[in-house]
Amino acid sequence: MKITAAEIAEQLGGTVEGDGSVELCTLAKIEEGCPGSLTFLGNPKYEEFVYTTKASAVVVNKDFKPSKPLPMSIIRVDDAFASFTKLMELFYGLSRKKGIESPSFIHPTATIGKDVYIGAFAYIGEGAIIADGAQIYPHTYIGDRVQIGEMSSIYSGVKIYYNCVIGNHVTIHSGTVIGADGFGFSPTQADGYNKVPQIGNVLIEDYVEIGANATIDRATLGSTIIHKGAKLDNLIQVAHNVEVGEHTVIAAQAGVAGSAKIGKYCMIGGQVGIVGHLSIADHTKIAAQSGIGSSIKKEGQTLQGSPAFEITDYKRAYVHFRNLSKLEARISNLEKKKS
User: Fold this and answer.
1) What is the DSSP pairing of strand 273-274 with strand 291-292?
2) 226 or 29: whose pLDDT is higher?
3) In this model, does residue 51 exceed pLDDT 90?
4) For residues 199 and 330, what is the distance between their CA atoms, to the nearest angstrom?
């Protein structure tokens, strides 16, 4: 897998200074660049490394002025940092696999698109649809009537239950389970529980990324929905009928109970717990280990604590909390003096 500096510049809408024909085969941090690698300078504090890196080419901002000659090819762009994401996508795209490995099982009624990769020991169920360019890695289970969108990557060991729908350009990392039954049980008069059938599905929209060993339960009725552009970290539990809004990010070990509705562009820290059947307004930020027990209606708040409240008030209250032992001692001394 090789690409020239000139081809990179064309992809990024930039210009080349130096040898445009130099071949590049990998990306590297600027301080760890080696021959054949491409790096970038997006933060001025790393400028010292641009003079010592062994990389064959470096992406810089158009206004960058080196203080000494640079031996490598230079690719000038409007925004070097933003271009890094494009470079990652470009190099990743070049390395995508194609073809069907053996042994794997593909049901005769399944539909397989162009340039698809299906790894060894993968299972593709009845009526499943695998769209163009999708990557299904080894030991993956794709259930009956599951749809996988274009250019989506389903990594090894992922299990996607029947009728679930995965959009385009979705990435699901190893060990994640999509569409297991929601936690639905009703108590009986005999102090037991009856299982409530979970007959809905999970809908994951375009450009979503889900980390390793996450679990997203199918809806009781309708769909559990992860909307466009949302990013979920490792070890996250999303319960039945939850909706996660567009471009919301959730860090590891967070849990969202059934039928909660999370808005757009929210940021949810690690180990946050969210009670079911509530709603969270757009642009809400929730600090790690917070507990959300009621709906958040005002947009743009930052919350902390369990139960969580506005972070400025939380920090003021926490100052007093840390001083409780001192305050208790002072009160005790005052009471002794009175007596």
Assistant:
1) parallel
2) 226
3) yes
4) 61
Catalytic residue among 169, 227, 240, 320: 240
CATH number of 99-314: 2.160.10.10
Where do the CATH 3.40.1390.10 domains begin and end in the chain? 3-94
Q: What is the pLDDT of residues 114-167, one digit of tens each?
A: 999 999 999 999 999 999 999 999 999 999 999 999 999 999 999 999 999 999
Q: What is the mean pLDDT of the chain?
A: 93
The CA distances from residue 62 to 10, 39, 70, 165, 330, in Å, are: 15, 15, 15, 42, 63
CB neighbour list of residue 332: distance below 8 Å, 6 or more residues apart: none
How far is Cα 32 from Cα 186, in angstroms, rounded to an integer? Answer: 58
Radius of gyration, CA atoms only, the chain: 26
Please check whether residue 237 is in contact with residue 215, taking contact to mean a CB–CB distance below 8 angstroms: yes
Residue 1 confidence class, pLDDT cut points 50, 70, 90:
low
pLDDT at 48 over 80: yes
* Residue with tokens 């769909």, as numbered in its chain: 223
Residue 104 has pLDDT above 90, yes or no: yes
**Of 222, 258, 254, 226, the residue nearest 240 (C-alpha):** 258
Give the mean pLDDT of 34-63.
Answer: 92
Half-sphere exposure of 79 (CA within 13 A, CB side): 5
Query: CA triplet 188, 191, 194: central angle to 5 degrees?
Result: 40
Let me know if 240 is a catalytic residue. Answer: yes
| CATH fold for domain 3-94 | 3.40.1390
Residue for token pair 């997203």: 216
